Task: structure prediction
Amino acid sequence: MIKELYTAALGMIPQQMKLEITANNLSNANTIGFKKERLFEREIIEAKLNLLNNSGRAEPTDIPTQTYTDFSFGSFEKTNNPLDLAIENQNAFFEVEDDQGNRFLTRAGNFTLNRDGSISAKDGKFLVADTGRLNILREFTVDTSSIENTIASNIKVSERGEVYLNKALIGRIQLVHVENPESLEKVSGVYFKPTENTQQRYLGTEETVIRQGWIENSNVNPIEEMVSLIELQRLFDIGAKIIQTQDQTLDQSIRIGRFV
Result:
């Protein structure tokens, strides 16, 4: 009977994890560049087999905890915003840098122009080019009070990642190609960082394909995730009822045993 409780509990653990993952995917369905997460089904199956073959004691290793990121393309949407960029290369990423100099990889290309001439993501991480942090005013002296309105429209990004301001070359966006994206560590939201196993390189000029005035949407399908969420909640409720029934049966057995 204890094993039945363990089995039911083990079945609920991945369901709970799936619920959390699915809910997070849904909440990011409209997040530009977001990549949905999944739980390894094989891990779940192996965990159940381990439990059924042991002597009745659940081990920490029996609980599946491994997730993975689905790096498939999201849909492309035309915005005509000169600072919206989409990557056509598979498994390629923009490189951005925070204030502390830490670098991250992302597919989110909805950038903005700051008054100091730097181009950054919405949360302030700077877009990196072949010259370091991309700054369109590095070679110019201008009035920065109206940069957002007057200069952004004059920025041109070629398909090869070359950035121009009024036909003057400022730098080139170097995309990072990752041979094994499954090795990337998801930091938060739309950001990833390489691990010691990551095989990466900068794409050459002829390899790079960037669309200016486009964004790559999240690859989350809201309808699929909602259907999955409803089904997972149903299965979770069933598991909870099984545990409750087993617990009541065990409690009754203990009470009867006291009087034998």
